[in-house]
Write a structure and sequence with these properties.
Length: 88
């Protein structure tokens, strides 16, 4: 039996190996995180973009600590809160 390993991003933005699959995906260059089934990310992945910049997180708390913001497409309410906090 083989053991799967996943590369996730920690709160310092550094990759590490995990036996558990990440719950969120993100884009390294844009510093955005979202759901694994985000329609926006899926469109870019289908076009062959995004894949080299794709990162994964254990949870939302880790993504935020690593400096990522919520995705407008799949995390709209969280994005609105993030945006409002930046404007105030």
């Amino acid at each position: 039996m083989s053991t799967s390993s996943y590369t996730l991003i920690d709160a310092d933005g550094k990759p590490y190996e995990s036996k558990t699959k990440g719950k969120l995906g993100g884009h390294r260059g844009n510093k955005i995180y979202g759901t694994l089934d985000c329609p926006g990310a899926a469109q870019w992945i289908a076009k062959g973009h995004y894949v080299k910049q794709r990162v994964f997180f254990r949870d939302e708390k880790t993504a935020i600590k690593a400096g990522y913001r919520p995705c407008f497409n799949c995390c709209r309410e969280k994005y609105k809160l993030w945006k409002a906090a930046r404007l105030s």
